[in-house]
Structure formats: C-alpha cells, structure tokens
Design goal:
Serine Threonine Protein Phosphatase 5, Tetratricopeptide repeat; mainly alpha; disordered N terminus
C-alpha cells in the first residue's frame, strides 16, 4: 500500500492518524488491524483520496471486494490520475466480476509513460500485495497487463 496525504489540506491530527496507520501497516501489521483506522480517516476526511485508496487496498487484502470496490471508486473519483487508486479499482472489479477493467489499466499505463518513476512504487505495492495474499490471481493479472 503506497499512498501519501499529498497536498490535500489536513489538520495535523488527521495527518498524524494517517501517518500512524500507514506506518503500522508498513511495519507489518495485518490489514485487518488497520482497516478501522482508515474507515475513521475516510469518515473524518471524505475528500482525501489517499485514505480511500488505502482503505480499498486493505479491504482487497481482507477479501472484501464489494466494499473495496466502493472505496476504490471513491478514490478514483477524487483523484483520477492516481495509478494506485486505479489499480485497486481494477483489482476490485476483477474480484467482483465488474466490467470496464481495461479502461483503468490503460489509464495506469498512460500515467506510467508520463511518470515512469512511479513504476517502482507500484511494483513494490504489488509485491507487498502478493506477499500478504499469496496466489492472488487478480493481482497476477493486473501485474502481467502492466508488465511490472
């Protein structure tokens, strides 16, 4: 899971909750242990795309694709250029059988052409997903489509 609060306006308390939750996840906390933090973050700041992106990722890891689809749609609506949000949406769509995945994969490919430095971050995120959820078929498909 890679996301940063970016330039979105936040109070220091909200920012510290986000940073603390990200930190716990990156230190190896199970996804289930930080989901509630990101639910709280998205309730406090419903217009913060990074919170929705992280929530979608955690829900995907916890095999909650319908809720992940809702969170990923919110993240993409708030920040259509975020490749991680688009990947999460693609994964949720694959997991739920929704149509339209190609459009999101193509958007990620376009972003990577314009900002190739983002590829490493996305590779790390995908590797993290496969470590935490071995045999994740939807992730294997997305990774192959993106050739990452």
């Amino acid at each position: 899971m890679t996301a940063s609060p970016g330039s979105e306006a936040q109070t220091s308390q909200e920012s510290s909750l986000f940073e603390a939750a990200i930190g716990r996840y990156q230190q190896g906390a199970p996804a289930a242990e930080v989901i509630d933090d990101f639910i709280a973050i998205t309730r406090q700041q419903p217009n913060q795309s990074a919170g929705w992106t992280c929530l979608a990722w955690l829900l995907l890891l916890e095999n909650q694709p319908i809720d992940a689809l809702k969170a990923a749609k919110a993240a993409v609506r708030l920040n259509p250029q975020d490749p991680q949000a688009r990947i999460n949406l693609s994964l949720a769509m694959l997991e739920t059988g929704a149509k339209g995945v190609r459009e999101h994969i193509e958007m990620v490919q376009r972003v990577l052409v314009m900002a190739p430095e983002m590829a490493e971050e996305l590779q790390e995120s995908m590797a993290d997903g496969l470590r935490r959820k071995p045999g994740w078929q939807a992730m294997d498909k997305v990774r192959d489509w993106l050739a990452l």
